[in-house]
Structure formats: C-alpha cells, structure tokens
Amino acid sequence: xxxxxxxxxxxxxxxxxxxxxxxxxxxxxxxxxxxxxxxxxxxxxxxxxxxxxxxxxxxxxxxxxxxxxxxxxxxxxxxxxxxxxxxxxxxxxxxxxxxxxxxxxxxxxxxxxxxxxxxxxxxxxxxxxxxxxxxxxxxxxxxxxxxxxxxxxxxxxxxxxxxxxxxxxxxxxxxxxxxxxxxxxxxxxxxxxxxxxxxxxxxxxxxxxxxxxxxxxxxxxxxxxxxxxxxxxxxxxxxxxxxxxxxxxxxxxxxxxxxxxxxxxxxxxxxxxxxxxxxxxxxxxxxxxxxxxxxxxxxxxxxxxxxxxxxxxxxxxxxxxxxxxxxxxxxxxxxxxxxxxxxxxxxxxxxxxxxxxxxxxxxxxxxxxxxxxxxxx
Length: 377
Hints:
This protein is α/β, with parallel strands linked by helices. It has helices spanning 24-39, 57-64, 80-94, 108-111, 138-153, 157-171, 185-190, 252-266, 283-292, 301-306, 323-326, 333-344, and strands at 6-13, 48-52, 70-74, 99-107, 193-195, 198-199, 208-217, 229-238, 275-278, 357-362, 366-373. The strands form two sheets. The protein has a nine-stranded mixed sheet with strand order 3-2-4-7-1-8-11-10-9, with helices on both faces. A two-stranded antiparallel ribbon has the order 5-6. Helix 6 (157-171) crosses helix 9 and helix 8 (252-266) crosses helix 9 (283-292). It is globular.
C-alpha cells in the first residue's frame, strides 16, 4: 500500500453570513491567519500559495507580506476546491514547495452576487444555447436533471427532502452554521418552488466567508501544532468533450473514475469511510454523487437517502457541518475543512465516533474525489 505524500496541517475559517465590513481580501486573510495559527506556523513559512475567488493574487500577497516561490490564482467555481488541493499535493510531493497555503475568500452575499440570468457568465453563460428555453441558471440545469431522474427511477420529492432535512439536523449541532433550525417534511414540501421540482430548501446558501488550508509533505507533517490529516488519494476528471451540460449519465461515469482512482491510491474502500462530504450546491448533486461513487446502485439514491444512511450515527454520516445547504455555500472549501476536523475529533456534538477516513466528492463539469485519513498508510 502506498504511503500518503501530503497532509493537511492547518485549517482556518471565518464566520459565515452577511459580513459587509469585509471584502474578499479581508476574508481570505482572516482564514489564512487562523489556519497558520492552527498549524503553528507564520506567514514567512509559506513558500507556495493558491488563491481562489479572491480578485488578485499580487494584492493578496502584498497584504500578507509574503513572497512565495509559487503562486497561482483560480476561478471561483466550486470544482476548483479539489483542483487547488490536488495542485498543492503535487507541489509538496514533488519537493517544489514545503508549505502551500490554499486561500478562499467570498463576499458574494454582501456584494449581491447572483447565479443565473442571461448576463451571468460566471454561473452558466457558457451554455447560452439553452437561454431561449429558460435554462439561465445552475439551479435550472439541476432541476432538469432531477426531473429526468424522477421519470427514469421513480424518485420522489419526499426522498429528495431527506437530504436537506438531514443536513439541517447536522447544522443544528454546528454553532458556525448560518441555518440551524430543523424542519419537517411538511415544511419542505410547502417551501416555495424555485425551479420545479426544486424548492427553496433544495438550494445552497450564498454567504460571505473565507476558508484556508495549509498543506505540506507527509514527511514534514508531524512538525506542526496539530495532528496531521493525510491526503491518501485524490483524483480529477473533466466532463467536457462527449457531453453537453447537463450530462446524460448524471456524471456517473466520471464520478466512478475518480472514486475508483482515489480509493485505489489510498488502498481503501467505500466500506472504510467513516463519513462523506458531498458537494451540495443543490440536493440532486448529492444523489448523483452517491450513485457515481458507488454508495448505492444506479437510480437507487432516492430509497438510499430515505432509509436514513446519511444521518449522524448511520452508516455514512454526510455533510456533518450542514454543508452548503445549511452551514454556508463556501464552494467545497468548508466541506474539506469539516473532513479534517472530523478526523482530528474536533467537531463536538456532531463528531463521528472514531472517524478514521472521510471521502470528499463533487459531481460537476470537473468531477473530483479526495480521501482523507488519520493514518498515512
């Protein structure tokens, strides 16, 4: 079994919600400062930095007072959380960098960010062919996919509801979550319909916030303030050439590839996972990820979630922080922090007992899978 090449040695987050006094640079600096303190490091220890969603890498480095030997900046799409993490793994595994900081800052709520509409090149502008049919937002595309899933497999609104209800129950145990009030099935079914069949409670929460992770090589990982969490396996797969968005197979093919590759690299199986962190911009994405990663069969995610498998205390406790649906939409980043905190045993009332391995996955135009572990091999 191969030994992990990289580890997370520090994490930091800001508060989440409406934070108008902070811009994206402020939020990134807040999170990075906390992550460095968590790792027992200083700004001068950073020799690689990857900036996500913050407008300018040069200005951020000026504010931080650092001159890293590697720097890059990436778009804010949620798929880039895993892309950035894999970049950091490669940098420290190759020896090009010793300590890589990944920094995300998002003041979208205070800035009035919206996803959708014909002017939204960020959300779905690349798919302008669909605009005349009303498909002008990410939510509309996921609603279309969910409606097809319902038609093919008999998936019901009551089954879909279990995802947002379960994640809200988890968020009730998380002081940092923006939405903490549990709700029942009637509340879900009576919520405002946004894009049939998706209701208000099927949508993520756009908020202000920042997240940072500090990644180093496995060999250096024990020289820090907190126990390391090892990146045992990671894989990416684009879905561009053979399928327009939305893909006909609900991303199953690409998700299977990344799950198989990351589990193979880690020397672990699905049965070894203590918890799941699944990118949940909308509830359907969770269902598609469960099927693609092999936690249930094709078309079986509706009954699977209805049986309660995602709840704390169940087989695969999922998005224990509340996820994008209830903690905050930090575009994948906060879910990766939750994976680290679970493996450190730092999650308080929502802690998964004896958590040993956590699987992060995202079904998107770039599908991703990351296996986090307490042990290096």
